[in-house]
């Protein structure tokens, strides 16, 4: 690496009445059956659906502010550090990558951040998203538990990712930026950013982890349809990518490598900025629209969750659902168990070390204190879906250290078994990522069957699996196997984590 300077170019509604006829294409509103004793409506084609008389999603207002959990924490999280000086990062250090407003949000201690009207206008395409009671799954499991899931797959990109992609694109456009670059693993984030950029006239360039680029051509085509350029990572287009390919020409790639490539391009071009789909504070803030809506929806039906369960890779979906509930927990208004679920193949919270590490493989980004498996850790390419990042969001890692949440890791065959149960009872095919939360939810529901307790379980269904069917094919054919956790591989990776202290 020619220089260690940070980001150097050279360094690596209306509620229906009981007799209302509704259109067939609006049947999904019937899935938001949030009342405990649902009323059934006769559809015009003779089908029947449950009416959400107490919580029509259109009666819940789209949040006007994002929530910043940092404001309510008794101990503030450790700051990111400059990779050369090990001193706290200053705003000007981040300016080559992010527009001014996002830098301000990243360091903010304010409790709430106003959502621009232009962003809320786009949110209206899919927000508020439905909260759905999984009554058919409850029946299948023969459990007294009441299971609810917040469904983010209704967005144009099919996941929760546009909740932050839209504001990130908008803030860049407002500052006159012409182009943004990013990385993507499973493709959900790249799809979301390509969608957002198409709305605000920005060019978009994406480095997609090679394993996913090969396994998921339709995610790539989605990005290209919205106008993005997509490259497999590692690539020969960057110094970081060429270095990896020299060491391993058949490298399956990793999010850390793809981040290095995108950051390198952003640092070299004044009219180009970088966007990240998870991990950073401002991304987690943007996702809290999920939890804020969910609080209102559950209040409308008179329910309070006993368990809140979400999948974690970088952490944005989990934070989006849980952080508003943690706020209420800190106020003493409720006391749910808050559980993060990660893949056994990439278990940063349960097997990683809480220390300062780079956010990318090449060591170009600031050092963040987080639970990490080591910045050059590469998950096995047969690990299905996303949740492949080597580290956990620093803010989630901090909350975990404070004891406000717990974490478990589940192997992928159990996750897909749960996904099949969910799809065949609820009708929705989950993306591989939320199958982890579904598997943990099923565990808890079966525990309730044993104890007889009618617990309320809230989980995050952060996206659909329509572009992930090859993973389901592998599972159904018996080709999907659990990956053994390679202790030696992790030890080797952690040995290369920088020694910072603190």
UniProtKB/TrEMBL annotation:
<comment type="subunit">
    <text>Tetramer of two alpha and two beta chains.</text>
</comment>
<dbReference type="InterPro" id="IPR006316">
    <property type="entry name" value="Trp_synth_b-like"/>
</dbReference>
<dbReference type="GO" id="GO:0052684">
    <property type="term" value="F:L-serine hydro-lyase (adding indole, L-tryptophan-forming) activity"/>
</dbReference>
<dbReference type="InterPro" id="IPR001926">
    <property type="entry name" value="TrpB-like_PALP"/>
</dbReference>
<dbReference type="Pfam" id="PF00291">
    <property type="entry name" value="PALP"/>
</dbReference>
<feature type="domain" description="Tryptophan synthase beta chain-like PALP">
    <location>
        <begin position="125"/>
        <end position="463"/>
    </location>
</feature>
<dbReference type="GO" id="GO:0030170">
    <property type="term" value="F:pyridoxal phosphate binding"/>
</dbReference>
<keyword id="KW-0057">Aromatic amino acid biosynthesis</keyword>
<dbReference type="InterPro" id="IPR023026">
    <property type="entry name" value="Trp_synth_beta/beta-like"/>
</dbReference>
<keyword id="KW-0663">Pyridoxal phosphate</keyword>
<dbReference type="InterPro" id="IPR036052">
    <property type="entry name" value="TrpB-like_PALP_sf"/>
</dbReference>
<comment type="pathway">
    <text>Amino-acid biosynthesis; L-tryptophan biosynthesis; L-tryptophan from chorismate: step 5/5.</text>
</comment>
<protein>
    <recommendedName>
        <fullName>tryptophan synthase</fullName>
        <ecNumber>4.2.1.20</ecNumber>
    </recommendedName>
</protein>
<keyword id="KW-0822">Tryptophan biosynthesis</keyword>
<dbReference type="GO" id="GO:0005737">
    <property type="term" value="C:cytoplasm"/>
</dbReference>
<dbReference type="GO" id="GO:0004834">
    <property type="term" value="F:tryptophan synthase activity"/>
</dbReference>
<keyword id="KW-0028">Amino-acid biosynthesis</keyword>
<comment type="similarity">
    <text>Belongs to the TrpB family.</text>
</comment>
<dbReference type="InterPro" id="IPR006653">
    <property type="entry name" value="Trp_synth_b_CS"/>
</dbReference>
<dbReference type="InterPro" id="IPR006654">
    <property type="entry name" value="Trp_synth_beta"/>
</dbReference>
<comment type="function">
    <text>The beta subunit is responsible for the synthesis of L-tryptophan from indole and L-serine.</text>
</comment>
<keyword id="KW-0456">Lyase</keyword>
């Amino acid at each position: 690496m020619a220089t260690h300077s940070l980001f150097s170019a050279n360094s690596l509604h209306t509620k229906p009445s009981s007799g209302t006829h509704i259109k067939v294409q609006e049947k999904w509103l019937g899935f938001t059956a949030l009342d405990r004793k649902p009323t059934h409506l006769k559809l015009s084609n003779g089908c029947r659906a449950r009416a959400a008389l107490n919580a029509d999603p259109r009666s819940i207002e789209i949040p006007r502010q994002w929530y910043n959990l940092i404001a309510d924490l008794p101990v503030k999280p450790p700051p990111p550090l400059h990779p050369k000086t090990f001193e706290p990062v200053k705003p000007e250090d981040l300016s080559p990558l992010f527009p001014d407003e996002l830098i301000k949000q990243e360091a903010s201690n304010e409790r709430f951040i106003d959502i621009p009207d232009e962003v809320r206008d786009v949110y209206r395409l899919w927000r508020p998203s439905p909260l759905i009671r999984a009554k058919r799954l409850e029946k299948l499991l023969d459990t007294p538990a009441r299971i609810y899931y917040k469904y983010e797959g209704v967005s144009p990109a099919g996941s929760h990712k546009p909740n932050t992609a839209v504001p990130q694109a908008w803030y860049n456009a407002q500052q006159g930026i012409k182009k943004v670059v990013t990385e993507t693993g499973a493709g959900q984030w790249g799809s979301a950013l390509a969608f957002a950029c198409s709305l605000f006239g920005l060019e978009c360039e994406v480095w997609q982890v090679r394993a996913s680029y090969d396994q998921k051509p339709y995610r790539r085509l989605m990005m290209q349809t919205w106008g993005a350029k997509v490259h497999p990572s590692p690539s020969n287009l960057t110094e970081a990518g060429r270095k990896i390919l020299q060491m391993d020409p058949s490298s399956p790639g990793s999010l850390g490598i793809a981040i290095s490539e995108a950051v390198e391009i952003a640092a070299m071009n004044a009219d180009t900025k970088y966007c990240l789909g998870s991990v950073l504070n401002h991304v987690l803030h943007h996702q809290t629209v999920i939890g804020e809506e969910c609080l209102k929806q559950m209040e409308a039906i008179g329910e309070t969750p006993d368990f809140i369960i979400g999948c974690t890779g970088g952490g944005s979906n989990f934070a989006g659902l849980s952080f508003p509930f943690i706020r209420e927990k800190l106020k003493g208004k409720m006391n749910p168990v808050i559980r993060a679920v990660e893949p056994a193949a990439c278990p940063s919270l349960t097997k990683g070390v809480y220390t300062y590490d780079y956010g990318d493989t090449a060591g170009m980004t600031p050092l963040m204190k987080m639970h990490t498996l080591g910045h050059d850790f590469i998950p096995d390419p047969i690990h299905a879906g996303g949740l492949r990042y080597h580290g956990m969001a620093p803010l989630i890692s901090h909350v975990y250290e404070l004891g406000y949440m717990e974490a478990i890791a589940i192997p992928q065959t159990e996750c897909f078994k749960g996904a099949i149960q969910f799809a065949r009872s609820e009708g929705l095919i989950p993306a591989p990522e939320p199958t982890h939360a579904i598997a943990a939810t099923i565990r808890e529901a079966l525990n309730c069957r044993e104890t007889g307790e009618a617990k309320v379980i809230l989980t995050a269904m952060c996206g659909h699996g329509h572009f992930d069917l090859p993973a389901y094919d592998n599972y159904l054919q018996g080709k999907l196997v659990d990956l053994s956790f390679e202790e030696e591989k992790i030890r080797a990776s952690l040995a290369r984590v920088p020694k910072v202290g603190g």
